[in-house]
Amino acid sequence: MKIRTLGVALAGGAALVLLAGCTATPDGDTGSATGSAGSIVSLVDASKTTKVDDVTAELGKPSAPDKAKLCYVTRTLSNEFWGYERDGFEKRAKELGVDFQTFDVTDESSITEQLDKAKSAMNQGCSALLASPISATGLDSVFESALADGIPAIVLNDAKSSVPGVVYVGPDATTIGATAADYIAEKLPDGGKVAMIEGDPGSSNAINRGDGFTKQIATHPNLQIVASQTASWDQTKAQEIATTMLTANPDIKAFYSQNDGMALGVQAAIDAKGLTGKVLLVGTDGIPQAKKQIASGGFTATVSELPTTEGSTGVDVALWLLAGKKVPGWVDVPAFVIDSANVAEYPTGMP
């Protein structure tokens, strides 16, 4: 089995040539030739959303067709969250004995680079394409071409595609933002001023988490968002922005950060103002460093995702489709809150 992770050194300008490995037909047959247009699309019920445990219970453990190869186009591995997503993908592929290849990009804003990597991935003879797109439509052209050739396309965690036949494996980002809002409301029964640190404005996760948070805060009339600004997923920028927000509004009672990396910057700003333990801080993702801060009293909570589970499930979905099994358009992997009450249950890694 070949295990290769391609970083920024991989040239991304190659022409898009779609080479299929094993592809499926609706009756469950697989082969080494390219599948007919629409064969995979017909297996995906776009209207159906099903919890991951229910899908797994129904479809069972998949098997790997001969000569199958799965390709995962992820984001920057300098963000440890995507490292866990990759780990879930690669570990499951190893367990099932299927060849695989991972492609990563330089940073969270490398939309063009990621598109080039996706094109390059398809030049490697992928039987199925998995990806975590930086933008909602950034990889749609590759998805469309893949599906037209009978190659499954699966999105992991972010940027749920509107292309018919693309399966989404991950949580509802809008619900994540709403969960953070309700948690803050529960912890601040007397209300108060709230601030939000946003991710990259072009990211679907940032947009949807922000929408969910803003709309849900509005259902709690004693809470008021007094500041909201993008830090583009950058910890240092988040610290600078949070410092400015606290200077302008020293009575802020809570921060919501759209990821834990930025929340670490917010925590530094809160600490510098002598407000540790006095200002609530809710992050997103559930990375190990955030959980350490929760255990030590720095963070209040994080809305944790399950990237390792998502990566693993993406492999299963790809193989189910290659076997001709029908799958829901959305395999829901719900997020959940980690705070001081349950942080000890998650001492290492990410679920």
Can you put this structure into words, describing what you see?
With 351 residues, this protein is an alpha/beta fold. It folds into 2 domains: 3-171 and 307-333, Rossmann fold, CATH 3.40.50.2300; 173-304, Rossmann fold, CATH 3.40.50. Helices cover 36% and strands 23% of the residues. The protein contains 10 helices and 16 strands. The strands form 3 sheets. An 8-stranded parallel beta sheet has the order 1-6-5-7-8-9-15-4, with helices on both faces. Helix 6 (204-217) links the parallel strand 10 and strand 11 (223-230). The longest helix has 17 residues, at 80-96. It starts with a strand and ends in a 12-residue tail after the last strand. Residues 1-37 have low confidence and may be disordered.
